[in-house]
Structures are given as C-alpha cells and as structure tokens.
Amino acid sequence: MHLKVIPYTLDFKFSARTSRGEMKDRQVWFIKITDETGSFGIGEVAPIHRLSPEDVNDVPDILEKLRSELNRENAPKGESQALELAAKLVPAAIPSVRFGLEMALMDMINGGQKHIFADDLSLINIPINGLVWMGDEAFMKKQISQKLDDGFGCIKLKVGALDFDQELSIIRSLRKISDELIIRLDANGAFHTNEVLSRLKALAPFNIHSIEQPIMPMQPEAMELVCNRSEIPIALDEELIGISSSRDRVDLLQDLKPQYLVLKPTLHGGFTSVQEWIDLAEMHGIKWWVTSYLESNIGLNAIAQFVSKYPYNKEYHGLGTGELYHNNIISPIIINDGCFQYAQSSVWGEVGD
Q1: Domain containing residue 28: CATH number
Q2: E strands within the chain?
Q3: Which residues carry out catalysis?
Q4: Which of 46, 124, 175, 217 is most buried as measured by Cβ atoms within 10 A of its Cβ?
Q5: How many structural domains are present in the chain?
C-alpha cells in the first residue's frame, strides 16, 4: 500500500477559547492510502498541542515511518483486518495517528466514499449538544441564543475562564429560559482542588446534567473525592488520555467511579480503543457519550458513523464542530434541529490529489 501525507491548516472563524488558552488555527494531516488496485481511503491525523500524548512536531516523522511500513503490508480485506493492522503498525501511545490510519483503511476497504461504518448515511440522526465557547458574557449569551433558536435541547458551556460569579450569572439566566433544557458544563480541569467542591455546590441548584473534568487529570485521590462527593455528576475526559492498558482502565473506573465518560477517538486511540472504553464503562454501569475534538469534516464524519453503531445510547453526543472553520472540507454534513445528519447530496471536497 502507498501512503500520501497532505498537511492542512484549519482556520477558526473566531479565537476558540478554553481554560487552557486560545486557538486561531489548527494543524492536521490528511493521509491517503492506496492499494495495488487503485482503491484509496482518506484519514485525518489531528493531534492537539499540549494535550495529545504524542508531540505535534513529531507527527511528520511518525507518518514517514508509517509510509515505509505500509509499503510492506498487504491491503486488509475487511473491518477486523483493517483495525488489527492499524493496531499492529501504530502503538496506542500515538492515538491520533492510529485513529487516522484506522479511518483511512476503513474508507479504502469500503470503496473510498467516506462510508466508514454506515452504508446509508441518510438514516443517521444523532442528537448532539450545542457547544458554547468561552468568551465575554455578551459573546457567550449570543451563542446560547443562537443554539436555542437552532433547536438544541442540550447546551454545553465551557466554564473556568471567566470570573466564577459571571459564569453563575450566565448559567442562571440560561436555566430561567427552561426547566427542561439539559445543561452540561466542561471545565477542562480549570477548578483548583481547594475550591472545586464549593464551586460544584454553587452550581448544583441549576440542575446541571454533568460537568466534564472539573480538576486537572492525574490527581487520582482528589478526583476520587470529587466523584464521590460532588452534587453534580462527573464526566471524565482528559483523565482518560494516555490510559491504554485494559488493566489500567479497569483500575481507573473502579477507583474513581465516575458517572460518565467522554470518549474522543483522536485522543483515546481510535475506534478499537474507544470500543474497549465503551465495553468497560457498560460493564461498570457508567454512561458515556462520544465527541469529536476539533477535527475537520473528514474526522467528524468517521466519528459520527462510529456513534451510529450504538442507537441504544440516548445521550447527546458532541458532534457539532463542523462549522468552526473558514476552510473546512466541503461535506454533506448538516446540523438540523439539534441533530447531526447528512444532506441528500453526498458531495465531498478534495483534500489533495
């Protein structure tokens, strides 16, 4: 098989702000794999600087090594062979590259039509949360108003960057709009351990569905205490990054006992790895949802099709990032009445010759 690497810079429509800082653009690498018959598939490698286990600057060298290794491999014949080959060639410690390879191989064996798991994209209808980015109060309220107008039944607010009283005011005004609206929060580890329980207590009266990663990861004793004492259900997110062995994953779930897992294929090792997290979560009675993480429409498409394999999961997933960029890849992806869908047209833009 032949591998071609296509670097691409995604430009945000605004400065995307979290508690870790702002992003104005996003470097990704598209990979195109072609077999001896000319069939090809495209994947997306999209690590996050200072968050992904792999160093973003190392990705070109990693992909060059992968190119030479793929030249010695025969094309897989089906889904299981494709996923096994990806696991063989790319270790779990390089999750974004493994995910991109899985995506490209799956696309290739399915005819290069961006059908990673689903045959009929018109049947996909996935409820998603409307994501509100951090900013000043006026900016956040404007986003909230737009999300409500667009029919979202679940709003997810990034918190931890503004004055806490300001954030409480925004959440209070949002809750006044509707008792039925589902409100999720994502702190990205912004709360300090000596303040987290008091802040969660202050947020609890607003009937919050859950809060993602209230404190920074790798503080197991503190996180266990938060999961046990919080008046708001806790969703682990960054806490899962870099936990690749089955034994370590079981230990984490049994020790911390979170209420939810937030699963991101780019950060957690792709389809096979996320499948294991799902199996373990359900074994331990923990609910879960899947989110994209600032991928282009190429990666977003693959993640959505993976989610469509689990129609029994009624949680709102996080698949609304396709409209973040000025120069996203043209796709049939649409958001309609708070749901991820595909337009009847299946037109896709080119990612490279």
Answers
A1: 3.30.390.10
A2: 2-18, 21-34, 40-45, 126-127, 130-132, 154-158, 182-186, 210-212, 234-236, 260-263, 287-290, 333-336, 339-342
A3: 158, 264
A4: 46
A5: 2
